[in-house]
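Quick one: C-alpha cells for this chain, please?
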Amino acid sequence: MARHPDNSDSFRQLGGIIPGTPGTHAYSLSGPKPSAIPLLIAVPHAGRAYSAPILKALRNPDAASMRLEDRLADSLGTAVAQETGAMLLVANAPRAMIDLNRAPDDVDWEMVSTAERPAKSRVEPSRRARSGLGLIPRRVPGAGELWKRQLKQEELAARVAGVHAPYHDALGDILADLRARWGVAVLLDLHSMPPIPQRGVTPPPQFVTGDCFGESCHGDLAAAIGTYLEGRGWVSAYNRPYAGGYALERHGDPDSGIHAVQLEIDRSVYLDDGLSRLGEGYPRLVTLLAGLVRELAAVAMALADSGMSSDWRDAAE
C-alpha cells in the first residue's frame, strides 16, 4: 500500500453555485495531490455566503446565523488540514439556506407553498424536520420562526441542485479516491455545539463522537477518538446527544473500507466569551485536533493492512 508521498502538489476545487449569488461556489475542496493521509475533514455547517434573497427572507439574520452556524469551524478545519495534510471540504453555503447534513427529501412541507407540496404519502418528514431542523431549517431555539414567507418549490429545487447535490457528489468522489489510493478512507465530519449544561456532579462533554451507533465506522476509530481526548484531560461522550446525520448515513460504508465519524466540539473551547470570534483556546484546539487526525489516519491504515473491512460486525456480535 502507498504511504506518504515524497512530493505532492496542492490543489483547490470549487463546485456548485449558491442560488442568488452568481459566481459564489457552494463548496471548496482542497488538499495535497496525491493525498498525504487517507482522511477527509468536512465542514458542512460553517458557511457564511448569505445571498441577498436569503437575508431579505430571514426574520432576524443575525440571530439565525449565530444559532445555526458551526461558528468558525471552517477555520479549525483549515488549520488542521494544513498541519496534517488531510483533504478538506468546506461548505460556503449557509445552513440557513440548506442543511447539508439532512437528506434531500427531509423537508417540512408546511414551509412550501400549498399548491406545490408533494402528495403526503410520497414524503414523510423526519422528527428533526418536524421540530424545525430539516433540510431547510424552519425554527431554532431562541430565535423562533426563521422565515417571513413560505418557500417556493423552484427555490427548494435550486438549492438542492446548486448546493446539496454537488457537495455530496464531491464528498463521495474524494472518499472513493482516498480508498483507491490507501485501501481505506475516513471522513471526519467536523461540527460545533453549544455548551451542554452540567447536570449533577458529572461534567458535561466538551466533545461528542458520533458514528450512527456503530453503523458508519469501525469501532476502533470511534474508540480511538475517545481514548485520545480523554487521555489528554478532555471530557468526551459517544453518540449522545449527537450520533451523526445524513453525511454519515450516506457515505459511511465500513464494509467497503469507507469510515465516517462526526465530531462535535463545544464552541466555548475555541471561541471567545460571546461565542462569536476565535478565542484564546483556538491554537490549543488546533494542535489537539491535528494530533487526533494523525491518530485516526494511523488507526485506519492499520485496519487496512490487517484486512479488517468486512468482518468486524460479526466479531462484535
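The chain has one domain: 9-101+153-316.
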